[in-house]
Amino acid sequence: MDRQKAKAIIEAILFTMGESVELSKIAEVIEFDKKETRKILEELALEYESADRGMRIIELDGAFQMCTRSDMYEYLIKIAKAPKHYSLTDTVLETLSIIAYKQPVTKVEIEKIRGVSCDHAVNRLLEYNLITELGRLDAPGRPLLFGTTEEFLRTFGVKSLEDLPEMSTTQIEDFRIQAEEEAQLKLDI
Fold first, then answer.
1. CB-based contacts of 171: which residues, under 8 Å, 6+ apart?
2. pLDDT at residue 76, rounded to an integer
3. Is residue 104 reached through a cis peptide bond, with omega within 30 degrees of 0 on the bond before it?
């Protein structure tokens, strides 16, 4: 293996691991001895420093780690504080509505109402911090219970769950019909 390929492998390892990796493990992977591996790491670290990049490679007690340069922290803070934009599909919104009105609720209960699996929608809502796990139902299998978060209230501009609009029986029937149609489409596929 040539040195350039070894550098690329080391870079991929350090970037992906996100924590320090022992010199001996890196040497083993690229199939070089420790002395030569150290030289390659030092060259790579120098390339990062001289190119004025946002990342750098540091040594920590015989291990190496890729990390952000400290003068980049202010930019990381800006991006972390930037408002998040959610992409809520009809399926995700429908699942969120069920959780908001029926909480605490299990996936099985959501799926009973929707007529289809809700794993993807629930995972997306958890990722967006619009719902949270509230604990477990005291029933066989101890299924997780889900409910909305403060982020849900902020996002939808309501002070409390009591401020959610009342659903009419017509709306509930429309939701049921849509869920049945969606379930039938999935069965036809």
1. none
2. 85
3. yes
Q: Is residue 23 part of a domain?
A: yes
Distance CA 178, CA 181 (A): 5
CATH code of residue 105: 1.10.10.10
Q: Is position 24 within any domain?
A: yes
Cβ-contact 149, 163 below 8 angstroms: no
The DSSP bridge partners found for residue 64 are: 21, 59
The answer on 105 and 56 residing in a single domain is no
Q: Which domain holds residue 14?
A: 3-72
| Cβ(167)–Cβ(174) below 8 Å | no
- What gap in Å lies between CA 30 and CA 7, rounded to an integer? 9
H-state helical runs in the chain? 3-17, 23-30, 34-50, 73-81, 90-102, 107-114, 119-127, 150-156, 169-188
DSSP 52: T
The predicted-structure confidence for 11-45, as pLDDT tens digits, reads as follows 999 999 988 999 999 999 999 999 999 999 999 99
pTM of the model: 0.49
pLDDT digit string, tens, across residues 118-142: 899 999 999 999 999 999 988 888 9
Q: In what order do the strands lie in the sheet with 55-60?
A: 21-22, 63-68, 55-60
Q: Which residues pair with 22 in a beta bridge?
A: 63
**Same domain assignment for residues 177 and 96:** yes
